[in-house]
Amino acid sequence: MNARIIKSTLAAIIAIYFSLFLSLTNPYSAGLLAILGTDTTKRKSLKSVSVRFLSCAFGILLASAGFLLFGFHVWVIGLYILIAYTALYRVKLQDGIVPSAVIMLHLYTAKEITLPLIWNELLLIAIGFGVAAILNVIYAPQAEKYLQLAKSKLEDDLSTIFSEISFYLIDRNRLWDGSELLSAMKQVKEGRSRTQEAKENSLFQITNEWDNYFQMRNQQLYSTQRMLDLVSQVDETLPHGEAVSEVFADLSEDVKNTYYTGKVEVRLIALEKEFKQMPLPSTRSEFEARSALLQLCLELKTYLSVAKEMKRKKPTGRESEMESQGWF
Questions:
Q1: Which helix (H) or strand (E) holds 259?
Q2: Environment class of residue 255 by beta-carbon count within 10 Å: exposed (0-12), middle (13-18) or buried (19+)?
Q3: Which of 142, 157, 166, 270 is the right S-S partner for 180, CB 3.0 to 4.6 Å?
Q4: Domain identity same for 52 and 195
Q5: Domain end position, chosen among 138, 164, 184
Q6: pTM value?
Q7: Are residues 188 and 286 in the same domain?
Q8: Cα separations in angstroms, 72 against 4, 68, 76, 124
Q9: Structural domain includes residue 203
């Protein structure tokens, strides 16, 4: 069941019972206000509650002034809606239009404006939105488990992609449906969405390590797609291709490493030096295949540069000891 539905249900029940306990007038309206104040994340909830509380307070003042000046007539309700809606939209408090209208109708139904009545309405607002805010802060979904699973699945997909590239460079008859690429794109999209939700559920944390991780993988997926396009242009098996195949085989393992090791980068630099010492191509098809391999290596460099910049560096010395003790 959706978490917001659960929170809304609990908030409405608690708010109504609390209002009944205090013998407030219109106690069931507290349940409605609690439902309106419930949101998906902590930050959104606190913002929502603040907006609606201010709107209701403004509504009480405006409705009281209108009914005292012009009396309790239906046309005054229309005047209230006209003025309140316009004012709240202008100050970007439009989310509080509905609850403020509920409070205004309470005053109209009572046919009087008294301090006890206004106090009653303020208590309903405080109880309804207060309960909603408390439940939103207490009951927030934990995204860590999902993000870990998404990371593991994403790295498995990337590992398979690089393995398939490696196999294809030495076996032109290798068949692959490319499903892992679509799966990786899905994991990145959902991971970034869940990361944003996790940030919204953190009241004080501004940056998030998961945000950096999925941003890195998103950039690398663009390079990965370009590498797949370049691999498809390699029309014949060459010694150069076998050497590049070994690099991608290493990358298929290294992609799962928590830290940036630089091992693949070192192999790629050494490979480029070897290429420069090889004889020039003797046929057009060999020239085109070697050109595609060279572009593939350049794109791999781009992929690795993103990892080098954004991936965690392996701690050394004292840092490694502190990490093993749970400091990082």
A1: strand 259-260
A2: buried
A3: 157
A4: no
A5: 138
A6: 0.67
A7: yes
A8: 38, 8, 7, 22
A9: yes
Rounded to an integer, what distance in angstroms lies between the CA atom of residue 302 and that of residue 64?
66
Asked whether residue 320 is domain-assigned, the answer is no
**Upper half-sphere CA count for residue 95 (Cβ side, 13 Å):** 17
What is the domain extent for residue 124? 3-138
Of the residues 76, 110, 138, which one is the last residue of a structural domain?
138
Instruction: Report the CATH number that the domain containing residue 240 is assigned in CATH.
Output: 1.20.120.940
* Tokens, residue 238: 């060459």
Q: pLDDT in tens for each of the 328 residues of the chain?
A: 567 788 888 989 999 999 999 999 989 999 998 888 887 777 777 888 888 888 999 999 999 999 999 999 999 999 999 998 888 888 888 888 888 998 999 999 999 899 999 999 999 999 999 998 888 878 766 677 888 888 899 999 999 999 998 888 887 777 888 899 999 999 999 888 888 777 776 666 655 688 888 889 999 999 999 988 888 877 666 667 778 888 888 889 988 888 888 888 888 888 778 777 766 666 776 677 777 788 888 888 888 888 888 776 766 554 444 344 333 2
In a domain, 325, yes or no: no
